[in-house]
Every structure is written in C-alpha cells, then in structure tokens.
Amino acid sequence: MMTALIVIDVQNDFCPGGALAVPGGDEIVTGINDIMSQYDCVVLTQDWHPAGHSSFASSHDNAAPMSVTEMPYGPQVLWPDHCIQGSQGAAFHPQLNTNPADMIIRKGYNPAIDSYSAFFENDHKTPTGLEGYLRTRGLSDLMMVGLATDFCVHYSAVDAAKLGFTVTVRTDLTRAIDFDGSLDAAQTEMRNAGVTFI
Ligand code: VGL
Ligand code: ZN
Questions:
Q1: Which of 20, 150, 177 is the best mutation target for the ligand 1 pocket, counting ligand atoms within 8 Å of the beta carbon and taking the most?
Q2: Are 15 and 22 in contact (CB under 8 A)?
Q3: How many H-runs (helices) and E-runs (strands) does the chain carry?
Q4: 114 Cα: distance to centroid of ligand 1 (angstroms)
Q5: How far apart (Å, rounded) are the C-alpha atoms in residues 22 and 8?
Q6: DSSP code of 11?
Q7: Pairing between strand 41-47 and 3-8?
C-alpha cells in the first residue's frame, strides 16, 4: 500500500491577512510540515487563477462577493479576487515546507471554469491530471489536509473517493470557510462518499 499526503491550497490568500482568509488557516502549517516524511509521496496544490477569473465577483456586473451565480456547469460562489497567478497571495504560506513535495499541481487556471477539486474542474469532467499521476505511481491511499475544509478539501476528497482511492481527512490539519452551512454540508457529502475523518 502506497500513501500520498495531499496538501490543499496552503497559500497566503487563504491565511489570515489574505484576500479569502480562512479563520485559523495558518495554524495548520507546522503540523503539516511535521507529517510530510511519513508518506511515500507529497503533493501540494495551488489555486492559480488568471486576473479576471469567472469565479471572481469583480468579473460580474453588480455581484457581491460570496453571492452565488449560475454558470453553464452549475451554481458557482463568486469570491473576492484571490490567488492570482504569480501574486504574493497565490504563493505558499512562507512557513510551509515545500522541499518534500514530489508534485505541485495548479488548478483554476481556466478563465471560464473554477476548480475546487485537485482532480476535476467544477464542470466535474475536465481532469487536472492528478489521478493519472497518483495511479501511475501506485499511490492508492490518500491523506488530505489543507484549506478550505468545505471547498477545495471537500471536493478533492469526494472526487478521490469516487475515483476509488482510499481517502482520509486529518480534520486537525484543515480549516473551514464555513459560510451558509457549507461545513456541515461538506462533512455529510464526504462521509457519504466513504471518506474517513481522523
Ligand atoms: C478555495 C474558494 C475559492 C479553496 C479556492 O481552496 O477552498 N475556495 N477558491
Ligand atoms: Zn479559487
């Protein structure tokens, strides 16, 4: 059995002071660093949007941040501008140890489609390539940590479980945005998909 640690979006914009700050987002960084050596593979993901991305409220007329709009692929929360390619906000938290990473995967670069999941864009069809990477390396058991529990960790964990990976979430090494019941809904969906929490 080969294990991978999947570290979701531990980036400045999701930490206190960032554009889409997750409460306590920075508290998980040293704990994540401490467990990296326990896995056969470490993957880091990076939310990586072009300026003017369609998931930004600023790209839509009269849309407030955190409102929901209908996209061709379904409902989409409109976020404050965040994780713009090459910006300080898109950089990893300065204390995150990136040296053990075998793979860094970026997502959300398609201007027309958001990508919460590390596996598929929000159309649930366009792959990021991570599935192929993990399978070709024989990595079957995934531990998920990072930000945010109710969005990118949630979608990544559910997609991974549906793809047949064994998926565990270390809840002490995640933090949530928790807006409009999103954390409760995410926990239910992850549990229903067969994700284990520790
Ligand atoms: C995320 C909202 C928008 C996340 C990314 O990493 O959970 N959330 N983009
Ligand atoms: Zn994003």
A1: 20
A2: yes
A3: 4, 8
A4: 9
A5: 13
A6: B
A7: parallel
Helix (H) / strand (E) containing 189? helix 182-192
Q: What does the pLDDT profile of the chain (198 residues) look like in tens digits?
A: 999 999 999 999 999 999 999 999 999 999 999 999 999 999 999 999 999 999 999 999 999 999 999 999 999 999 999 999 999 999 999 999 999 999 999 999 999 999 999 999 999 999 999 999 999 999 999 999 999 999 999 999 999 999 999 999 999 999 999 999 999 999 999 999 999 999
Amino acid identity for residue 114 in this structure: D
Give the Å distance between the CA of 115 and the centre of ligand 2.
Answer: 7
| Active-site annotation, residues | 9, 107, 152
**Ligand 2 mean position, distance from CA 47 (Å):** 5
User: What letters, b where the CB count within 10 A reaches 16 and e where it falls short, cover 50-84?
Assistant: eeebbbbbeeeeeeeeeeeeebeeeebbbbebbbb
Evaluate whether 144 touches 168 at the Cβ level (below 8 Å).
yes
Report the predicted TM-score, pTM, of the whole model to 2 decimal places. 0.97
